[in-house]
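Practice record 12: protein with zinc ion.
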Amino acid sequence: MRHAAPILAAFALSACLASAADGLTAIVGASVVHPERDEAHSVDADQTVIIAGDRIVGVGPAKTTRVPRGATRVEGKGKWIVPGLVDAHVHFFQSGNLYTRPDGVDFNAYMPYAKEDARNRARLPATFKVWLANGVTSVVDIGGPFWNFEVRDIARRTEAAPRVVVAGPLVSMVDRVKLDLGDPPIIKTTSAAQAVDLVRREIERKADYIKVWFIYRPGDDIAAQEAIVKAAGDAGHAAGIPLAVHATELVTAKAALRAGADYLVHSVEDAPVDDEFIALMKKNKALYCPTLFVTMGYQYAFSNTWKATEIEARRGDPEILAMMGDLDRMPKEMIPERVQQRMAAPPEVKPSQTMLENLRKVWDAGIPVAMGTDAGNVGTLHGPSVFREMALMQKAGLTPLQVLRAATVGGARAMRMERDLGAIEAGKLADLVILDADPTKDTDNLARISSVVKGGKAFSPEDLMKSIR
Ligand SMILES: [Zn+2]
């Protein structure tokens, strides 16, 4: 890392790993965490991890694992190594600030959406760094403008960036005209033919997912909606592309699964999941992403009670953090009525008990779960919001190891890179996080990052953050 003055051991570790990225590196004496294993066998103490180029080539007891000749030796004593985290639900077209969803609350009078949109595009290199600085080495952007395909290209050629897979514009039941600046992230389709037409345009761009925004309102013809979801899903499946669906009610979630959904990108939030739902998930081998925090983020932000956590203050994008206090400065006449009301009587913000219970039920049924924040939505910051999300998953009753499994094994599945990601073992990509505390004791320890390694290249969180200030 070039940018910064040396900082403690993290710097030394990063510097060693970085300089040896094209050669051989051996991290010696660390505890290696295996989130894919059961609790009793999840941590192997005193291990040596050998990295060659962008791959892990060996993992074994330090006593018996020979450090190859010429390898750079890095001290791992007192450290824990986990696979790089995956956020399975993000949106790069959104920033997390107040202005990023004018279709929800419109601040155009204060901040034109076109300006916010341009800022988000220009800010991409910083947004990438913020993800890495929080130990997240892969993200799934599960829907945005056609520009999303460029985001993926830019990430691929940027060293300090997570791996990025993308969906294109959402095949939607409703439109969102306020988000349409010529390349809308959400496109209303009223027939199967329209849906298929949009999906074909996304297939041309090699979409990693087809995403449907299944919005059901009382009076809607849910059978007709299901037919649109199925048409979109079938068209994607014919091209080998999986179907991700936003369906937050039990009735729409089941309809989405009947229509072939491979990935439910949110919790079921209106009712307890039932046996039929579990059976449909199993039949499709579908993945479940709880996104427990995102609605709370909106509630905090639009009542002006959003406060950065300690880790957000250090590892959130400073530009966005500064904007989170804008309601204190904004002329009152520019604050939408609804927000003024919420500021006058802030709601009590708490997680949905139904969503917490549903996560536990889904987990206990053996359904694969991926950790995802829906980052970019108002109040849910790119990067450090993973710690808010994982704390809530722990609150739902998952053990820290189970939360880590969702964020790594489940994430690898969401990335469709199970062969390459999700474990610390020979043959996998060298995407890992070196921690100063045991993450199987508390998910918060996942924030105690010494160094982040992506594809064999090491970064220190402090250096990454300094480079974007
Ligand atoms: Zn989303």
